[in-house]
Amino acid sequence: MNNNSVLTFIIKKVIRFTSLLFALCALSFVLISNSPIDPVKAYIGADMMNVGPEQRAKIEQYWGLDKPAHEQFLSWASAVARGDLGDSKIYRRPVIEIISERFTASLLLMGTAWTISGILGFILGIVSAVKKESWIDKVIKWYCFILASTPTFWLGLLLLIVFVVWLGILPIGLAVPAGVLKTDVTLADKFMHFILPALTLSILGVANMAMHTRTKLIEVLNSDYVLFAKARGESDWEIVKNHGIRNIALPAITLQFAYFGELFGGSILAEKIFSYPGLGSAITEAGLRGDVPLLLGIVLFSAIFVFSGNLIADILYKVVDPRMRGISAS
To answer: What is the rounded distance in angstroms from the CA atom of residue 119 to the CA atom of residue 316?
Structure first.
């Protein structure tokens, strides 16, 4: 696949994504505007009873809530085009700063889960394919089918019950111990609080990778050149090492990059369950309190994050599969 073909493919993808991103932001804004949540009441909180009509009007004017919905959206879009995502009503800080801070924590969580689930799923898929129709294969398939239908919040609550309530060996949530100064928090404390949310996402991400690897490796093991290798006396594991892994590794990596969207969605739920201070908890709080700038900013950023993963997956797929090299982006 030549450089011009790759560049053309990327440009088409970016143009299509830009139009989709605009539509996504517009739809999100319409849904937020028609939400039953009163943004002024959510902004003021318990002191709403002490706010008169004049004060309310000044608050609406300050946040631009006195303008029609379409003018608010166009004003926000023009600011975004200049690189300004606005200020958060909740945190009273620029949205870009909040997203930057929260995404660092989320990226560590998602990166760990992405790596562990990919490696573990790849290994389980290989074992399942080599031991096809054995009890090991059946156990792995049963495990994957159960995981594929397990909600993130349910698994998170189950792990909380087992490791926190019953065994008492892990903290209940947060990223650091409650009531401890930041200077007194050790790396071990952060690691202990990090285990459960990372474990939840890692376990759920195994199923797709394992089943995909199993299917691809079985196709390789049934090929003519593998039958010839068996005739030469190579063992199953030698065949997997010499012929299998090189044929299934890149497709598996491609699939793992396409997993970005599911990983991000699962991370939001996991962070909420464990009170982990990432983008997940921020988007939940922004939605419940009507923080439109923060909510739209996270929607915008998350869409770009998922698009990046899908774009990498598409490029890898076109590079890996020769049949796709002559096919333009559809």
So the answer is: 18
CA 37 – CA 86 distance, rounded (Å): 20
Could you give the CA distance from residue 92 to residue 320 in angstroms, rounded to a whole number? 47
Q: For residue 197, what are its two tokens?
A: 């949310």
CA triple 270-313-10, angle to 5 deg: 120
**pTM for the whole thing?**
0.80
Tokens 């050149």 label which residue? 225
Confirm if 298 and 282 have CB atoms less than 8 A apart: yes
Mean pLDDT, each 10-residue run in order, the chain (330 residues): 71 86 85 75 64 74 76 84 84 89 88 92 92 91 88 90 90 77 80 90 89 90 80 78 81 83 84 86 80 86 85 75 47
Q: Residues 251, 257, 262, 267: what is their CA dihedral angle, to the nearest 10 degrees?
A: 140
Look at residues 177, 111, 146, 160 and name the one whose alpha carbon lies nearest to residue 273.
160
- Yes or no: say if 5 and 325 are a contact pair by the CB < 8 Å rule: yes
Q: How many residues in the chain?
A: 330
Please report where in the chains the tokens 């969207």 appear, as a residue. Answer: 261
- HEC assignment per residue over 194-220: HHHHHHHHHHHCHHHHHHHHHHHHHHH
